[in-house]
Design brief:
45% of the residues lie in helices and 14% in strands. By secondary structure, the chain is an alpha/beta fold. It folds into 2 domains: 167 residues, Periplasmic binding protein-like II (D-Maltodextrin-Binding Protein, domain 2), CATH 3.40.190.10; 220 residues, 3-Layer(aba) Sandwich (D-Maltodextrin-Binding Protein, domain 2), CATH 3.40.190.10. Strands 1, 2, 3, 4, 5 and 12 form a 6-stranded mixed beta sheet that branches. A hairpin with a 2-residue loop joins strand 1 and strand 2. Helix 10 packs across helix 11 and helix 16 runs antiparallel to helix 17. Keywords: Signal, Transport.
Length: 417
């Protein structure tokens, strides 16, 4: 893809072949082997369910073998190298980008028997303007600010009353005064920092400012409204004191022990928190906005799978995807996602977030907005994360953080020209 030269791509592909196993499908003794780059780490509930469902599929289809590749620490680079080398796996998890990054490489899915079951919420997330979409989504991520109900209650904070950033700041002050860490995050997980920016930015920009950004004009002054707020939170001591050294396990333990209030992270992160304290009480709330009412951020998540349009075993790969799309099978995947289901006929699996999710979406009719980076800053999530990290550590001023993102934005724009 962008930025790859032919020779470099070829060299990288050779390396990738050694580390990732066979490239694409193969046949041996009449049995087709389908390579599936799952992007799910070894031992995770998600990979275990895929392994269980795959065995079920292979028992019914003995002429097809599904080779499940576990995730690595460089999933996105792995698939980019494979695509640049023209040897993609037969199936891969599209990690949020089935339409906006991989559409040219994937087999369209809108004519599959299960396609009509896509929920209305998913239309804006997965479909192109002409109704095409390119992957099977098990779940759809609907994210807000996760909170510890017990911690907030101890500090006298009602999450239902937080509808502005001023109210959020007041809640953080109350938490800190009660000896509770207001916000947890860690630079050891790019997502834990990047999601702070990704969740907040949609409510920073006005509609006219979003149109300007979409047209290729980055106004650093607008971004500074976000960076200044996060910088002030850091100065006020709202983040965990061990931020620079903390691991995802460390901050999960803080949340699990009722010693932290807020966490800007997807609901799936609650699984680790609950592993430390099954009785922890968690909820989710929408994100305050400077441009109207609060909202939830929504988008494609990690349990979304597409088929390479150049696969030599395309029909077998599609047969496997159709199998996963069956309601009873898709339900098993959704159950380990802690998200809403993307297709009808499959129940959502938000766990203990279900009551607060239902309150905000059904009673309060809370709006949803797409993940900011995918719509307005594609390819810049890492920069958003690193610049936000600099704000929390104090290594970057709000102006410098905005400048970093602007530089990356301009560089990305110049590469497209």
């Amino acid at each position: 893809m962008k930025g790859f030269k032919y020779i470099a791509a070829a060299a990288c592909c050779v390396l990738a072949a050694g580390s990732l196993g066979a490239c694409g499908s193969s046949s041996s003794g009449g049995k087709q082997t389908i390579e599936f780059m799952t992007m799910q780490s070894s031992g995770t509930p998600q990979l275990k369910v895929l392994q269980k469902l795959t065995k079920k599929f292979e028992d019914k289809n003995p002429d097809i073998h599904i080779k499940l590749d576990p995730g690595t620490n460089s999933n996105q680079n792995d698939i980019r190298v494979r695509l640049a080398g023209h040897n993609p796996p037969d199936i891969w998890a599209t990690h949020g980008w089935s339409r906006d990054r991989y559409a040219n490489f994937l087999e369209p899915m809108q004519d599959r028997p299960w396609a009509k079951r896509l929920k209305p919420l998913g239309k804006d997330v997965y479909k192109t303007k002409d109704g095409k979409f390119y992957a099977l989504p098990a779940d759809i991520q609907v994210s807000g600010i996760m909170y510890n109900e017990t911690a907030l209650s101890k500090a006298g904070v009602d999450p239902k009353s937080i509808d502005t950033w001023d109210a959020f700041q007041q809640a953080c002050t109350k938490l800190k005064s009660s000896g509770i860490t207001p916000i947890v995050s860690t630079p050891k997980d790019m997502g834990a920092v990047g999601d702070i920016a990704d969740y907040i930015l949609p409510g920073i920009y006005s509609q006219s400012e979003l149109k300007q950004l979409k047209s290729g004009k980055f106004d650093s002054k607008v971004y500074e409204r976000f960076s200044s707020m996060v910088s002030q939170w850091a100065k006020d001591g709202y983040f965990n004191v061990d931020y620079t050294s903390a691991t995802p396990d460390d901050i999960s333990r803080l949340m699990a022990s009722d010693k932290a209030g807020f966490y800007f992270r997807a609901n799936g992160s609650a699984q680790l928190i609950e592993s430390y304290n099954p009785k922890v009480k968690l909820g989710m709330m929408p994100i305050p906005s400077d441009q109207g009412k609060p909202y939830f951020s929504t988008g494609e998540d990690m349990l979304t799978f597409g088929v390479s349009k150049t696969s030599k075993s395309k029909q077998a790969a599609i047969k496997y995807i159709d199998f996963l799309a069956e309601s009873e099978n898709l339900q098993e995947l959704v159950n380990v996602s802690m998200n809403d289901s993307a297709l009808t006929g499959v129940k959502s699996a938000l766990g203990q977030f279900q009551p607060t999710f239902d309150y905000w979406t059904k009673q309060q009719k809370t709006r949803t907005v797409p993940f900011f980076d995918r719509t307005y800053l594609p390819g810049l999530y890492s920069t958003m994360s690193k610049s936000t990290d600099g704000l929390i550590t104090g290594q970057l001023t709000p102006q410098e953080a905005a400048g970093q993102v602007q530089t990356a934005f301009e560089n990305a724009k110049s590469k497209k020209q």
